[in-house]
Amino acid sequence: VDPFFRLLEAQLQDQRREHEEEVEALKNRVDAMKEELEKQQQAFLQTLQLSPEAQVEFGLQQEITRLTNENLDLKEILEKLEKNEKKLKKQLKIYMKKVQDFEASQATVPTDRRRHERNMQVAVQRKEKDFQGMLEYYKEDEPLLIRNLIT
């Protein structure tokens, strides 16, 4: 019984520590938001003291800064997407090469074995998909198809 209570106590301490870390992170976030709000309030008060022309200019400066930051964020996202696209294209080339190598190796496999592998692939596809309607097959595969349908 004593080890059980120690385990529970250890779990409780871990949860308490995680909770305290979360609370600390949230407090830091609230403090950062308060600072940002104070900056915005000060900027607003400063703009109220400016002439109408200066207020318009200040507003334009703020909007230009916001759009510039947004543009930089979008450029960063675009760079990540382009990098990911290049990576995926490389993977596609590798997979295409593997498919070509596989097809080349299948050309050297005896025809009976290929026919059996093709029938196995058809059986797997039937398990994965819900077919409705007619079934297309090779005439020479009919006995194997009938045997598979019966079993």
From TrEMBL:
It comes from the Eukaryota. Keywords: Coiled coil. Residues 5-105 form a coiled coil. This is MYO5B protein. It comes from Podilymbus podiceps (Pied-billed grebe). The lineage of its organism: Eukaryota, Metazoa, Chordata, Craniata, Vertebrata. The gene is Myo5b_1.
